[in-house]
Write a structure and sequence with these properties.
single chain, 480 residues
């Protein structure tokens, strides 16, 4: 019991509702009481109410408390506990001088055994405060006026079936379609590569077992006989899809392998990792083709070959996209500069005239791979890092997905949103892939689900066949 005349000080923090970060109302949450006591406050404030403290400072203070409570593990120890970051990244998150990437903060909070939901709310409050201070247009400001105009509300893709494919016991990090489109591969945090029948949504074979850590990258060989996978056990594995054991196990990376990509001729496999290297492998022998490509200040997150296999694009922690000659292993020009955070996904347009990249700065950018110049303005819409981008194989359409749990479709000619965002996942979406004919779209996420979406519009077979004929003719000219 307190005497009425005793002073009472309540230290309060204003947070957005973590279950609905877009809501205008805010909750006032008691985080410290003097004298000590237990209080429950749930006071709805108007959106115009000023923040009593700098949200970033609040996040920094709470993170520091958690760090002290966990016994102040070293940055190297913390990085090892997360299994997916460098010690310098872990150190930067703990210092929290500037707002860290949510994915990194989430890993650190989990390693420190903290409340992820609480820190997600703190991070959103700091993110929104930063957006209000900056004059540029951000996703929150553009939600109504830019992202979902009334004439763009058509539904382009619809969920297939009543429920998503379930099988992984951990987050699903990557998906890839077989060249014939009948099989989908997925890699998960449970260390398995799973193969799905895209016509039924059921498992096509038993899981491919062998990785001793999370599988974060998968890719099919152009002839469809092999699937490559990379994971947190620092290995790259090649699997014959008709057998449950890996055909080859490739060693060389000293950290998590974040991306794998086959050359169009199928003889070369590229892999990129958190160790900042890109390695090229002979798919027949499993031997390295040359010394690793090292040019990023930090992890090399994303890889993609262009349609003729002459260029290899690589995005990294330093916010740059680099283009390499697949033949010589040398850079072909200066890095593509524009992102203000790590570039975690890249993809070439099917005919090779565009390169897309997405990353921690919440934007998707298009580049001309010939000139190295940006094409148009960045695509703004996601709230949180963009994890994956993909081009439709036969239409001027691009898809992107990210930590906000949404899949967004974009018109390439105008840069405007195409249809409503797809919101079937209940957590961050880690990967997307278009079916070779474009009628299906696969997504995977932290909710352990693999989802298939079917085009709501009738297929334009003539346009698709024209595109295929064009690509075949282009390849014949380039390889003759």
């Amino acid at each position: 019991m307190w005497r009425a005349e005793e002073p009472l000080t309540i230290c309060a923090k204003v947070l957005r509702d973590p279950m609905n970060p877009y809501a205008g109302g805010q909750k006032l949450t008691a985080v410290g009481l003097r004298p000590p006591g237990i209080w429950n406050l749930d006071i709805t404030m108007s959106p115009q109410a000023p923040l009593p403290e700098d949200p970033l400072a609040v996040l920094r203070e709470r993170l520091r408390d958690l760090y002290l409570y966990a016994g102040e593990p070293s940055s190297r120890t913390l990085a090892k506990q997360t299994g997916a970051m460098s010690h310098s990244t872990a150190h930067g998150v703990i210092r929290c001088i500037s707002l860290p990437r949510w994915g990194n903060l989430e890993l650190v909070v989990e390693a420190l055994k903290g409340d992820v939901t609480e820190f997600k709310a703190l991070w959103i409050a700091a993110h929104n405060a930063r957006s209000q201070r900056e004059p540029t247009v951000h996703a929150e400001d553009a939600q109504e006026s830019v992202l979902d105009p009334p004439h763009e509300q058509e539904e382009l893709y619809r969920p297939v079936g009543e429920s998503p494919a379930e099988g992984h016991s951990g987050a699903v990090w990557s998906v890839a379609f077989h060249p014939n489109g009948h099989i989908l591969a997925s890699g998960g945090g449970d260390g398995t590569v799973r193969l799905w029948d895209t016509t039924t949504g059921k498992p096509w074979r038993e899981p491919l077992l062998g990785h001793t850590g999370a599988v974060v990258a998968v890719a099919f060989h152009p002839n469809g006989n092999l699937v490559a996978s990379g994971g947190s056990d620092k290995t790259v594995r090649l699997w014959n899809i008709d057998h449950p054991h890996p055909a080859r196990e490739l060693h060389g990376h000293t950290g998590t392998v974040w991306s794998v990509a086959f050359h169009p001729n199928g003889h070369i496999l590229a892999s990129g990792g958190i160790d900042g290297t890109v390695r090229l492998w002979d798919t027949t022998t499993g031997t390295p083709l040359r010394e690793s490509l090292i040019d990023h200040d930090g992890a090399g997150w994303a890889l993609a070959f262009n349609v003729d296999g002459r260029l290899l694009a690589n995005g990294g922690d330093d916010g740059m996209v680099r283009l390499w000659s697949a033949a010589s292993g040398q850079p072909v020009r200066e890095p593509l500069v524009g992102h203000s955070g790590a570039v975690v996904t890249v993809a070439f347009h099917p005919d090779g005239h565009l390169l897309a990249s997405g990353g921690d700065d919440e934007t998707v950018r298009l580049w001309d791979p010939v000139t190295g110049c940006a094409t148009g303005e960045p695509f703004i819409g996601h709230i949180g890092p963009v994890r994956s981008v993909a081009f439709h194989p036969g239409a001027d359409l691009m898809a992107s997905a990210g930590d906000d749990g949404l899949l967004r479709l974009w018109h390439l000619d105008s840069g405007k949103p195409a249809g409503r965002p797809l919101d079937g996942h209940t957590g961050p979406v880690r990967a997307i892939a278009f079916h070779p004919h474009g009628q299906l779209l696969a997504t995977a996420g932290a909710d352990r689900k693999v989802r298939l979406w079917k085009s709501a519009q009738p297929p334009d077979h003539e346009a698709l066949y024209r595109r295929i004929d064009y690509l075949h003719a282009r390849l014949r000219r380039l390889t003759s």
